[in-house]
Amino acid sequence: MPLIKVKMLEAEGGQGAVKPTGRKRARAQTRIQREKQEVILEAALDVFSREGFRGATIDQIAEAAGMSKPNLLYYFPRKEEIYKRLMTAMLDVWLAPLREIDSDGDPVTELRSYIRRKIEMSRDYPRQSRLFANEMLQGGPRVLDVLETDLKGLVDEKVQIMEGWMDAGKIVRTDPYHMIFSIWATTQHYADFDVQVRAVLGKDRGGEGRFEDAARYLENLFLHGLLPKER
Amino acid sequence: MPLIKVKMLEAEGGQGAVKPTGRKRARAQTRIQREKQEVILEAALDVFSREGFRGATIDQIAEAAGMSKPNLLYYFPRKEEIYKRLMTAMLDVWLAPLREIDSDGDPVTELRSYIRRKIEMSRDYPRQSRLFANEMLQGGPRVLDVLETDLKGLVDEKVQIMEGWMDAGKIVRTDPYHMIFSIWATTQHYADFDVQVRAVLGKDRGGEGRFEDAARYLENLFLHGLLPKER
DNA sequence: GTCTATATATTGATAGAC
DNA sequence: GTCTATCAATATATAGAC
């Protein structure tokens, strides 16, 4: 099954996040305001995903966004707010594929499309992947609570689905948690360690086709041997 | 097969790296000098692995090392030199397990111990793993040449071994490059994304046993289905 | 070898003219 | 809304006393 272009929201975050928390007057945003914020967030994603929160500077972001530093700060008064906007938007989008795993679907089909979507996201949105990886390396100070509540809850739910499939004899018994970790690790590796992957593959195999190859390898790795009948 | 305590050099780097490049007089280092440098490198590993090169500050490192900033700079005149020392020492140690894969050994045994050693390193030396991950996320500006020469050469060599095993019918045919990437990704995930792993597993499964569970899962994932006879 | 003091540049953020 | 000018804090690194 070939990789397709994934349709995914760009990092925007809920509209709710834009409104001032005080909201003395919930004033509607102009189109230009939204567009400028969009440009800033796009530039910030570039810088934060490469350098991490501390390593990134407002100067770099402003330059990448093509505006002056004070001008940027007019739209986002604090560096941290840009970062938080990116993180929440990213988390939301990043977990969408996992949410879609359907207990009523065919196990192998469900897992196969999960793996495929994850590798597509690494191919199409590597910066979001790196942004998250950077946050993790730092110990996740700004998302730890989300991980322990929302993420854990979501994973637990999907683990139960997978255990149901095992109980029903639909797939071979394995450790669902570590299977999910392994799918995350392998698929995101192609975004986070892209330099290394391309350096090792060289120019003959390091082109765009590497994602196809990876998808094929990973689908086989995780799905082969999962069907009880095969043995 | 249970995990054992791995024996590994601490980040020290070759002795050659210590000598001044000019070496007007190749003066031997005193014991105290080496010990102080050791303390600094240990502290620097802590900070760099969490914050990346740009995000880390000499202040943080000096405080972690329990000395003043000028005192630290007496031993390492530039921030970049501390970082480079850590990187070269890390790379050397980090690739040791891959180097040990032996073409004359039994394929499954060789791969099993490779996986086991890699997960042991994530357990015992998570900071080294994160240091490297941080460098990769930034695009590997300080190691790109090493990746393209030494690392690629090493991987190519081991890929040839694996292809030899496949040609001889000793293991099932698969993509050796992506297999190696997947082993790297999955094992290092337990160091790099440690926060996430522990958050998801919760307190019941997130203890030290998680490395045992991971090792068991990964050995099965990569090795099951590799023997032609099993099918 | 270690310290205080400091030079110099860069950082996040603000003031105020236009 | 956008700019120049600038502040206060922090950054890397050095000078020089002890």
Features:
homodimer, 231 residues, mainly alpha, Arc Repressor Mutant, subunit A, Tetracycline Repressor, domain 2, 2 domains, 11 helices, 68% helix, DNA-binding
Topology summary:
Two copies of one chain form a homodimer.
Chain A: H1 31-55, H2 58-65, H3 69-75, H4 79-94, H5 96-99, H6 107-124, H7 126-137, H8 144-167, H9 176-192, H10 194-205, H11 209-223
Helix pairs in contact in A: 1-2, 1-4, 1-7, 4-7, 6-7, 6-9, 6-11, 7-9, 9-11
The structure holds a DNA duplex (18 and 18 nucleotides).
Descriptive report:
2 copies of one chain form a homodimer. Chain A is mainly alpha-helical and 231 residues long. Chain A has 2 domains: 3-80, Arc Repressor Mutant, subunit A (Orthogonal Bundle); 95-226, Orthogonal Bundle (Tetracycline Repressor, domain 2), CATH 1.10.357.10. Helices cover 68% and strands 0% of the residues of chain A. In chain A, helix 1 packs antiparallel against helix 2 (58-65), helix 1 (31-55) crosses helix 7 and helix 4 (79-94) crosses helix 7 (126-137). The longest helix of chain A is centred in the first third of the chain and has 25 residues, at 31-55. Residues 8-26 of chain A have low confidence and may be disordered. The interface between A and B is large, with 57 and 57 residues. The structure holds a DNA duplex (18 and 18 nucleotides).
